[in-house]
Each structure stands twice: as C-alpha cells, then as structure tokens.
Model the fold of this input.
Amino acid sequence: MTTDVNTRVPVREQDAEVRAHNFEEVCYGYNEEEAVCESTRCLTCKNAQCVKGCPVAIDIPAFIEQVKNENFEEAYQIISRSSSLPAVCGRVCPQETQCEGKCIRGIKGDPVSIGKLERFVADWAREHGIRPEGPSGKNGKKVAVIGSGPAGLTCAGDLARLGYDVTIFEALHEPGGVLVYGIPEFRLPKEDVVLKEIDNVKGLGVKIETNVVIGKTVSIDELIDDEGFDAVFIGSGAGLPKFMNIPGEQAGGVFSANEYLTRSNLMKAFKEESDTPIYRGRKVAVVGGGNVAMDAARTALRLGAEVHIVYRRSEEELPARVEEVHHAKEEGIIFDLLTNPVEILADESGWVSGMKCIRMELGEPDASGRRRPVEIPGSEFTMEVDAVIMSLGTSPNPLISSTTEGLEVNKWKCIVADEENGATSKEGVYAGGDAVTGAATVILAMGAGKAAAKGIDEYLRAK
Amino acid sequence: MYKIVKKRVLNEAICLMDVEAKRCAAHCKPGQFVIVRTDEGAERIPLTICDYDAEKGIVTIVFQVVGAGTLRMFRMEEGEYLHDFTGPLGKPSELTDESTESLKSKKILFVAGGLGTAPVYPQVKYLHELGVDADVIVGAKTKDILIMEDEMKAVAGNLYITTDDGSYGRSGMVTKVISDLYDEGKKYDLCVAIGPMIMMKFVCKLTKELGLPTIVSMNPIMVDGTGMCGACRLIVGDEVKFACVDGPEFDGFLVDFDQAMKRQNLYKTEEGRKYLLEQEKETHHGGCGQCD
Done:
C-alpha cells in the first residue's frame, strides 16, 4: 500500500478491453484496507473546505475519522444524517469540482478520494445490513413529493427524518428517475445499489406510488384540496429531449439519448431476455459531449457497435466529466471533434444510412465566455452510420406547470423557485432540481431537495 | 398492481378487459390512452381507453395480440393483476372542450377501422350522453374481426358497418362508404377517423377532396408515453410533435403519414420474431426465413 501522503490510493477498475463487452460496473471501489489507508491522508481540518464544496454538506472529516478508526458503521450514520443516497453520490458526483476540488491536500498533490471513501462506507453498510437511523416520531403532517429522482428522494428522506408522513408520486413504473432510466448499469448498478438505496428511503417511512403522472392521473391542486397534503415538493426533473431540427431526423435509427438509455437501462433491453427491443448498430454516431452523450456512447459500444462522439467544439470544451471521457476513450470510443451534423441521410426503407457533417473552428468567445464554434465553408463530408443518438440536452416537461393553478415558470419552462428554500409562487408548493434549473447534476438536485425539505419544515412549523 | 376484474374474448386475437385503476378512472376523458406492463420485465404497451367508470374505479381497455407482450396479456385471466397501468395519458379529444350547443350544431362522422372501434366508442358515447347523435362507420376485414357492434349501435346515430370481403354489412373499404354517403346526399362538418395508419391516410385523402375537416388519432411506437423520449415523434404541418403529449389526436390534413408508417415498421421484424418464438416455441424454426 502506498505511503506517499501526496498520492491517493488508486482504485481498482475492470480492464478496459473486457468491460467494453459487458454491462458490469467499471470501478470496483476500495476494500477495507485501501479505504483505511486512504483515510489516513485526511488532515481532519477544523475549518474543513471540503464540506463547503458538498451541496448537501456531509460532515466529511468526521466520517473519514471513523473510517480511520475502522468504525465503518458510525461513518455510515454520519453520512446518512446529510445524504439519503451515499452509494449513488460516491459513484456519480463530479467530486473534482465539489468536495475534492476544495480539499487542502489537492494543493500539493492528490486531494483525498472523498467520493471513493463515501462509496466504500455506503457499500460496506449495505453488505453488512446497516440501515440509516429513522425518525424519532411522527408529527401527523402530510407532504407529497412529485418525482422519485435524486431531488425527490433527498427531500422525502429529510422530511421523513423530521417526522413527516411523506408520499412520493412517480410517473414511471420504477422509482429512481435518472438513476434508473438514465445512468447505465456499468456506472451505477440498479439492483445492488440504486434499489437498495431507495429501500433505505422507504425504510424511513416514505411511501412511493408509481404509475402516477401528475397533471394527468391526478393534479397538484387535487392532492392539496382533496387528499389533504399540507405541502408539495416538485422534483419532476428535465426529461424533455431536444432534437437538432435538421433534415432527416425522423429517419429510423435516430434516437434521443433518453429513448436509447431508457430502453437499455429502465427496460433492460441490453439483456437478451427483455421484451423491449433496442437497435444494436454497426456504426453509431452520438451527437453531443455531455455525460449523457458518454453514457449513450458507452452503452452502444457494449451493444456491439463502433461508436463515434460527434461534438461541435474541441476536447477542452467537452461538458462531460474528465473521468467519463477518459473511460470512454479507454474503451475505444472515437471522438470526432469540431464536427457538426447538418443532415441525416436515409436508405430506401427509411433507415439511417449516413450523416452529413460540417467541420467547425472556434471563433471569438461568446457572452458565456466559451469560444463559439463557426462552420468552415465547403468542409462538408458524409459519415457512414446506421444509427444516430441525439444527446443535446433536455428541458423540463410542461405537464405539471400547465396543470397547476398559479405556478410561475420562466421562458425556458423551468419552475421559478427560491434558491434558499425552494418556495414557488404558489403557497405550500416547493420545487427543486432540474425542474427548476434545467438539466444539471445529481448532487445539485439533491442539494435543492435538501434545501426545500428545510423550507417546507419551516413553512409547516409556522403554519 | 391492477386487478383484471373482467375479461371478454371478442375473437381469437382481440380481447376486452375491465381493470381496477381508481386514480386513472377518475380522470379519463375520451381520446386518451394508458400504458400497460403485464409483469416484471415486460414491455410498456400503449393502449387506447375504450370505456371508464369513475365511481367504480374501472377502466376498460381493448387490445389485439400483435407481439409477445400482448400475447401474455391475452392469456391473463380475471382476478389476475397487471403489474403496471399508467394514465390517462395524452390530450383528451378536442370535442370535450366544446359546449353542448356547439356540438349539437355540428354533423359529426366517426370512421373506425378494426381495433380503432375501441377508441371511437368513448367519443361517440360522450356525445350521445350530451344528446348529440353522431354517425359512425365501422370497417373490418371480415365479419369475424368486427368488435363492439352492439355497444356502438346503442350510442351512434346511424351506424354503417362494412367488411372488405362483403361478409357482413356493406362491402368494401371505409372510404367507399364515405363516398357512398356523400352520393346519397349526406354532408358532415367534422370527421374523426381512427384505425390503422394506412386507413387514416386514405380517409384524409378523400375527406380533403370533400372539404371535410378530419381529426386522426396516431398510434406510433411509444416507450414512456409521458414526453421524455420522443420515440413517438411525428411530423405534423412541418413541425415535430410527440404523439404521447401533443396528441394522440391531430389534424389529419397536416400529418405526414408516409413518414409515420416508416417509423411504425422499425421494430417489426424483431418483435415479430419474439412473437413467433413465444407462440410456436421451437417449432417455428421451420424455415420462416426470418431467423438464424
């Protein structure tokens, strides 16, 4: 085991050539010995900067102290007081820009692997049957949570711990939101990690009703007026996919990343025995450069295709996490940068046969400070592909805002909510996560769910 | 879990089920649909709502066996439970927004093809309950696959039944009946056509010539049915629309049917294979030409 305090204990991973052909988890995580060794690198700062970098403010030095002492159960309870989904966050948070980005060890060497330690503690607790501590009593007040993604689960978990009677309403047949339909198995195992973590939230007394589409099956106003809910939290996310609106986009073999990933992850189409079909292309283009694009590309690769990421800016501007880009490259994903599709070509039967693209160069920085991609005239060329996955981002579904009286939205159809406490323009209705911000990260949604739980608690105490 | 309280086999491939789904039943309106999953691991299948009873908490669905999922559902019995039942989804028929007075001033013609009879029924029933009697044309390939004749007769103004082979009622396609009715001096203000895409396409071709505005209900491939994936996207008047949230009903003169039919066929072979495998087990490997 390493003794250099400036270097983090490396984490074991599945070999790239092997994992490119299966859906098993890429990263194996730390074992006890590795975790304890890494934990000793923590300086247990009094005024810990890492905690300030964590959107749900986990007491990081305190839980790492318990890992040092090999008291993993106590470490888990410390994390659980702040987070309902530690096994998820330890895996999918962009720690480099959050807790680990602020770690003092990072100045001279590697920051402490906070994410991997959190993951170790959560996995250890699960394997040893340790569950989070429940509420001490019930206060008799009912709160409805719309959406069972990271924002909703966090808000529900926090409110349940405060003694509220919480019911989550989920439109799909399984709870978890993007954790089950969006993020693939090889990054976030469903049965072993996501479902168990949701079971822990249920263990706090939270009820989950699936197959309820708010705005269709029942409205928010009815929940308040007819079903006696004292407050509502909207964590319905941003699930509406964007398309490019270029010619040929309706051809067979053109998918939104949401459709492709939902088929594979939620409907388990990657397994032979699943009823839901998925197209296993020979050569697939994924358009976009975010984490969702990486997930779609690595899924298509595992389904047997040669996969190209087509992105209009350069590598430096890729919005995906560095770790994801690195993993994608290791597995053999080809990056076609500074390239933008202009038309999708189809064969006689209507199936994709190619994609006409144009080369780009970077111009002057725009208002957001990013260099704007500009087309190079005359540089068009045709890529031969048999499937195209559009991963251009998503926006909130207007279904809830259009069916709830007096709920203010902005021009992007995002619900307007107070950043501090999640309050919307409608009394007793709170919102957070992608429904408010547009597509962002799991941990930011959790932070918003946490803030709203506090806001709802303050509102109902004062009422 | 959602209990099947009644099952009625209408013919060898079509079946009607009353399903207990309280929240859904309380909010159903004509023109909407549900998504059903029979069991763990099954596909999400979009099905039109055929009838509903808010007081009893019952939603009635009709479906035809076309693949592995619907075959498993066909084999389920009264007292068994569907794993998932989501809805009502989609926009209700625009007719439900109109005042009774305005509806009474209109002559409305419904054209139902095959299984399309099921989603036409709640609309005709809705109008009938408001005292508006709409004419209905029901078309089927043969007499054997005609469904819901008595139910429809009870709520329709004039009911015209036609079979492609002339084995029952009038003879020929639904488009022939529309032409014949116009020849007989009938005239309508609005047509609602629901059935296979090819039928709706040809109805629209004819009604456009007749100057008869026509609403169609589209049935593309769907996955979630809540607007999050775009599998059901269509071109309507040069705009991309998601049938599950913007529809399923659209102005038939604006729908690009050829594009929609191409998209419809995308998974046909793969689904067909699974269906054959489940129905005929190993014996279907008799040189169907589709399988390895």
User: Anything to note?
Assistant: DSSP finds ten helices and 16 strands in chain B. The longest helix of chain B spans residues 197-210.
